[in-house]
């Protein structure tokens, strides 16, 4: 009978861990957005507070420059714009401190090119480092 | 132990994310009132239970209830895929136009009527199968299988194996039972396409600042003009583009002339991020007030105000059509400031809900500094009943509104409120 109880408790514990663990850990962020002039995908390998590297892939439209800034709507925080470096045609890398605290941020991409300027916004869930 | 479990349950409930606005899920329609092409409409978006799947959009006409063709365009913000259709506004039970959405997540609905365009952002959500269900059925299936095995091996007198199988069966039943009991307390997985939510939402967002303007800036009497409301976040300076749908609209705007003879309760169109616009025509020159009720997501509501002037035209417009003053019953007959007063109005039998309520009462102080929006709280079929505590003594201008089968009725009247202690 004891063995039976032990097995039941172990299985229940494993199940609890499975359920609780599903939402943990910051996963890499990958999200796409399209506007009228440009379409872009944002990739953040480690979406955490502090210094981050953010890759912006311009999926459509010919963007010459990409600048990235962020706003945390819940708190009213906003961070200065970071100009992204074009690494390869259509691939830009922005590095710097964008997210001062964990939570949901609006990442705004300001794309500029021959077609004109457009601002696109994607949501990002940022975890503590 | 029970206390600990209760605590865990309470914590899990408290951590559950608040409902986000503008979400379209199966079984939860998104209803948004819009004042477009001179008509007062409510756009209904019905959710889908799968993607690719059908997204059904209908338009209910409140005033006028004449047929109006609305162009629809649904665009996925993530991949830019666009589908179009048209909807015919109908007074009741609209014919739903079926469009196909291929993915969940952020979308935009563009409405087009005449030369007016509104862009409504929304999210298509599809419920995911819950892990709890999987565990309940998985646990019971395991228990059943093992019990049969246990009985068979027991019959064959293999005691150790039988015990092991019986133990497994007990574990299966335990898991299923635990999940059945605690499933309500466990956070449901977010639906597919949901906006990310923080584990500990802060609750409340900064104030929105509203700037009221007219286009042209000097509207003339009788001439159509656009009333524009630009919303700016007070903390970041960015446009406020996160308005929640409350009482079936992203903004309720009440425009009144200073003397109260002109009254419109309209639902402006979102024409750009942070910009709301509605077309109006004022029939008399003078000063006008605009009071806008808005609510940011995860926040409380707030009232934004502004004023503008309508200039006399060279060719004066005809006499304005003034609605006959209503004769409400007040209880107490002389309302006292700071105490609840009840206002009763007779209404015809064919009143239908509008903006989610049977009736609305808009109350403005004479100087325009105060605006209240009260909801009808009576029982169906009886007179409309509103209860409100007028904050200060003085004369208030009031307009009761309700929708009948063919129009929106606005009944204007005034309420004189006495100071507390002055009543003898």
Automatic annotation (TrEMBL), chain A:
Signal peptide residues on this chain, from the entry's feature table: 1-25
Domain of life the protein comes from: Bacteria
Alphabetical UniProt keywords: Signal
Protein name: YtkA-like domain-containing protein
Organism (species): Nonomuraea terrae
TrEMBL record, chain B:
Assigned keywords, A-Z: Membrane, Signal, Transmembrane, Transmembrane helix
The keyword Transmembrane helix is annotated on this UniProt entry: yes
Residues that span the membrane, as ranges: 134-156, 163-182
Signal peptide extent: 1-21
Ranges for region Disordered: 190-209
Domain of life of the organism encoding this protein: Bacteria
Protein name: Secreted protein
């Amino acid at each position: 009978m004891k063995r039976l109880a032990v097995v039941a408790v172990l299985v229940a514990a494993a199940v609890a861990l499975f359920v609780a663990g599903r939402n943990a850990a910051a996963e890499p962020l990958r999200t796409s957005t399209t506007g009228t002039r440009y379409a872009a995908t944002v990739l953040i390998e480690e979406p955490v507070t502090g210094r981050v590297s953010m890759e912006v892939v311009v999926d459509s439209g010919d963007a010459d420059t990409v600048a990235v800034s962020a706003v945390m709507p819940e708190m009213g925080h906003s961070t200065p714009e970071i100009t992204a470096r074009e690494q390869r045609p259509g691939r830009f890398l922005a590095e710097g401190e964008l997210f001062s605290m964990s939570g949901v941020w609006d990442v705004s991409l300001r794309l500029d090119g021959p077609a004109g300027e457009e601002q696109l916004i994607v949501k990002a869930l940022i975890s503590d480092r | 132990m029970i206390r600990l479990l209760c605590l865990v349950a309470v914590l899990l409930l408290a951590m559950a994310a608040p409902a986000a606005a503008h979400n379209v899920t199966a079984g939860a329609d998104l209803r948004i009132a819009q004042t477009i092409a001179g008509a007062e409409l409510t756009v209904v978006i019905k959710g889908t239970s799968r993607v690719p799947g059908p997204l059904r959009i209908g338009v209910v006409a409140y005033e006028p209830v004449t047929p109006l063709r609305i162009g629809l365009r649904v665009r996925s913000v993530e991949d830019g895929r666009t589908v179009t259709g048209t909807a015919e506004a109908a007074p009741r039970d609209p014919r739903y136009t079926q469009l196909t959405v291929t993915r969940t997540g952020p979308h935009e609905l563009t409405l087009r009527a005449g030369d007016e365009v509104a862009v409504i952002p929304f999210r298509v959500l599809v419920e995911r199968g819950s892990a709890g269900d999987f565990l309940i059925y998985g646990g019971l299936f395991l228990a059943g299988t093992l019990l049969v095995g246990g009985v068979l091996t027991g019959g064959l007198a293999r005691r150790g194996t039988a015990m092991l199988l019986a133990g497994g069966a007990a574990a299966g039943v335990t898991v299923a039972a635990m999940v059945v009991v605690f499933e309500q307390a466990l956070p449901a997985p977010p639906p597919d396409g949901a906006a990310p939510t923080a584990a500990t939402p802060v609750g409340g967002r900064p104030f929105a600042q509203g700037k009221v303007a007219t286009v042209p800036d000097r509207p003339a009497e009788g001439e159509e003009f656009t009333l524009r409301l630009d919303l700016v976040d007070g903390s970041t300076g960015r446009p406020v583009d996160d308005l929640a749908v409350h009482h079936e609209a992203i903004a309720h705007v009440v425009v009144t002339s200073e003397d109260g003879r002109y009254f419109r309760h309209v639902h402006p169109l979102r024409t750009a991020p942070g910009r709301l616009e509605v077309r109006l025509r004022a029939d008399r020159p003078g000063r006008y007030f605009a009071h806008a009720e808005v609510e940011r997501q995860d926040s409380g509501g707030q009232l934004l105000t502004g004023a503008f002037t309508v200039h006399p035209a060279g060719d004066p417009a005809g006499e304005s059509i003034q609605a006959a003053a209503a004769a409400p019953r007040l209880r107490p007959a002389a309302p006292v400031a700071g105490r609840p007063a009840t206002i009763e109005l007779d209404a015809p039998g064919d009143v239908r809900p509008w903006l989610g309520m049977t009736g609305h009462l808009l109350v403005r102080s004479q100087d325009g500094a105060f605006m209240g929006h009260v909801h009808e709280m009576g029982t169906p079929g009886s007179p409309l009943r509103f209860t409100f505590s007028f904050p200060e003594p003085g004369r208030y201008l009031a307009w009761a509104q309700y929708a009948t089968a063919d129009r929106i009725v606005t009944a204007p009247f005034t309420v004189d409120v006495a100071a507390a202690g002055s009543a003898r």
